[in-house]
Amino acid sequence: MWLLLAAQAVAAIEPISVGIAIGAASVITGYLSYRDLYCRFAECCGKQRPLNATALKLDLEEKLFGQHLATEVILKALTGFRSNNNPKKPLTLSLHGSAGTGKNFVSQIVAENLHAKGLKSYFVHLFVSTLHFPHEQHIKLYQDQLQRWIRGNVSACASSVFIFDEMDKLHPGVIDAIKPFLDYYEQVDGVSYRKAIFIFLSNAGGDLITKTALEFWRAGRKREDIQLKDLEHALSVGVFNNKHSGLWRSGLIDKSLIDYFIPFLPLEYTHVKMCVRAEMKARGSAIDEDVVTRVAEEMTFYPKGEKIYSDRGCKTVQSRLDFQ
């Protein structure tokens, strides 16, 4: 027992010492394998963590506002993929919509439900176009680096998650470097990518989504009546032909390697108020409806005549709440 306690103490120092202490403890006790005991102190990939579909559904329904399509499709895609022990290709999702509609927030929810440490996990990797791939003249370098990075991380953890933010700011051609990894190959250079997940986040296509939402609103139909088939094809064609989508004439679309194009609808006044309440709750504050209303009314809404949708979604809710 004292060796196990010693291992706990050493865990705060550095991983090599942890390994030595745990190794000694496992040899003496004989109860746990080295890996089992080590993984009590450090994050391990090992066997794929089971997806709790009920928890994911609850997170999406309680934390994501006004996005019935995203909730439905993401839940369906993830549960189906993770329940398949032998997928034929990685799961690839492309999330589209205007700023502040919840795309980044959903990627956080997904990461937290797939890996215990969420976005802080060693097995969840976030790429930001303007940070990691800023210069157009270095596209070939970025392609090579991206291939090496993904190959190395999937080799270390088959169920790795890769999130590409600001796809609409990614230089054309960069993302096609990962096409072989998203395809229906059993292995690429000895590595299987079939259990990995790739998520693209983009503002591209937001205008198409808003156009459809407005058509439904003007026809007196509920936003919940909008179905994936009303938007998905138009989204895929739109971003394929958009030079500023990051997927312009991409082989990922041409070869149907993106499993779902997921639209995030523009947010209405009621959704903004829901965001404010959620932020107040997260801060441990009592819900003050006067404050909720003030913050929501400070937002700018469009179109000019009807003023239905928040032009920044819920993106500035936190900063506006700070000044109340």
UniProtKB/TrEMBL annotation:
One Pfam family here: Torsin
Which residues belong to any copy of the Torsin-1A C-terminal domain? 267-323
Localisation per UniProt entry:
Endoplasmic reticulum lumen
The cross-references to InterPro entries, in alphabetical order and at most eight, read:
ClpA/B, P-loop_NTPase, TOR1A_C, Torsin, Torsin_1/2
**Could you tell me the Gene Ontology terms of the biological process aspect for this record?**
nuclear membrane organization; protein localization to nucleus
Keywords for this protein: ATP-binding, Endoplasmic reticulum, Glycoprotein, Nucleotide-binding, Signal
User: Which PANTHER family did the record assign?
Assistant: TORSIN, TORSIN-1B
Please state what the protein is called: Torsin
Q: Look up and give the organism this protein is from.
A: Myotis lucifugus
Name the encoding gene, please.
Answer: LOC102436219
